[in-house]
Design goal:
CATH class of the largest domain: Alpha Beta
Number of helices: 12
Largest sheet: 8 strands, parallel, barrel
Structural class: alpha/beta
Number of strands: 14
CATH architecture of the largest domain: Alpha-Beta Barrel
Helix content: 25-40%
Shape: globular
Order of helices and strands: EEEHHHHEEEHEHEHEHEHEHEHEEH
Distance between the termini: 23 Å
Low-confidence stretches: 366-384
Length: 384
């Protein structure tokens, strides 16, 4: 089994100008952190870590000093053991969140390497009988500077015209009546067979969320994402019992929380970002958790084309994945990876090349390591 010989970190910043927002944040600069691993067989694996809208400095420092040195010279077969030991140690350091993000990027890069070693696309490495395709939904419908209801309706109609059978929009930023008017306008602008995910961004009580859902045509609403506060499990359970197709909790990484959502709240869709919840290995564990229940997986992607391609490979291999998020605003590397205009979002066919089938553009690699910091394996710090 090949060994990891080198790790490189690269970053990207996408300035979105702050003209769009949801009830929780204004979209200004979206950062990305990439992990590039090389093995002694000459392969290069690519992964991405969860960074969201925060500056990457802390994550980069944590990767260099606390995580990557543990993987120097490691046989690819031994990665899971090291990962588990780091997770166990995090109980003492209270760094589970940033560690899970860092390990997710490494996990994706390792699976990319393993797939290349076997000459298989990642989805086939994960499941030889997988579909090789994934279903994506258009994620947009944000609030915006001078954005009218007519503008929103035109936006949602545009998604349908591009072939999306399912789209997502935000609510929770205006009064209930105003947001219901926005949703009805969006539905009226879309074909009768097109559906919506409404994202409440943790804005409502269970009672108000139920009022909203009951004011909408049930056959047109695929899911109600984040209808209540993130840890209102009782509220999510109440909504599920009332027939609301709850979807939660996008960036959650704790398995005990996932278990509560699936077994106690019994939500319709367990939403997870692979780059926040442990990469390929993490999502496979969640699929095992959901197996035999009413809950399906929905993969969150508000990151770059690297994270999107990884999510699509996972979805193409895992039947429990219902859909993958396709962001319509933040689209770094989408066109470069064949995810620009013209692809079929209902049945996106994954590349047949080994691994993820994508690599960072050369300018990104040449500017890697953020501030010209040496590659992790050249750092003197090592941990037992």
């Amino acid at each position: 089994m090949p060994r990891i010989t080198r790790a490189t970190l690269a970053t990207h910043a996408n300035d979105l100008g702050g003209k769009l927002w949801n009830p929780a944040i204004r979209w200004t600069v979206k950062h990305a952190v990439f992990v590039v691993l090389e093995d002694d067989a000459g392969n290069t694996g690519l992964g991405e870590c969860w960074c969201f809208d925060t500056a990457p400095d802390a994550l980069l420092a944590f990767l260099r000093t606390e995580v990557l040195p543990h993987f120097e010279g490691v046989d690819l077969a031994n990665v899971e053991g090291i990962t588990n030991r780091l997770i166990d140690r995090a109980t003492l350091t209270a760094r589970h969140g940033i560690l899970t993000s860092a390990l997710a990027g490494i996990d994706l890069a390792v699976w990319d390497l393993r797939s290349q070693q076997d000459g298989l696309p990642l989805w086939r490495k994960l499941n030889a009988t997988g579909s090789g395709t994934s279903s994506l939904y258009a994620s947009g419908g944000l609030y915006g500077q001078d954005k009218t209801v007519h503008d929103l309706a035109r936006e949602m109609a545009g998604f349908a015209a591009q072939g999306f059978a399912l789209s997502k929009m935000k609510i929770g930023g205006l009064s209930m009546d105003e947001d219901l008017a926005r949703v009805h306008a969006a539905l009226a602008a879309m074909p009768a067979d097109a559906k919506l995910i409404v994202d409440g961004v943790y804005s409502y009580s269970a009672r108000d969320a139920l009022r909203i859902y009951e004011a909408l045509p049930e056959d047109r609403i695929e899911a109600f994402q984040s209808p209540v506060k993130a840890f209102d499990f009782a509220g999510m359970a109440e909504l599920s019992r009332a027939g609301v197709p709850v979807m939660a909790l996008e960036a959650e990484y704790r398995r005990e929380v996932h278990a509560m959502l699936v077994h106690e709240a019994q939500i319709a869709f367990l939403q997870t970002a692979p780059i926040a919840s442990g990469g390929v290995t993490g999502v496979r564990a969640l699929a095992d958790l959901c197996s035999g229940t009413r809950t399906r997986l929905s993969l969150e992607v508000s990151s770059t084309g690297v994270a999107l391609m990884a999510a699509c490979h996972i979805a193409a291999a895992e039947p429990l994945v219902a859909h993958v998020e396709y962001h319509t605003v933040h689209q770094v590397y989408f066109k470069e990876f064949g995810l620009g205009p013209g692809f079929d979002p209902r049945t996106f066919t994954l590349p047949g090349s080994p691994g993820l089938g994508v690599s960072l553009p050369e300018p990104e690699l040449s500017a890697a390591n953020y501030g010209n910091v040496p590659a992790a394996f050249q750092e003197p710090q090592k941990r037992p």
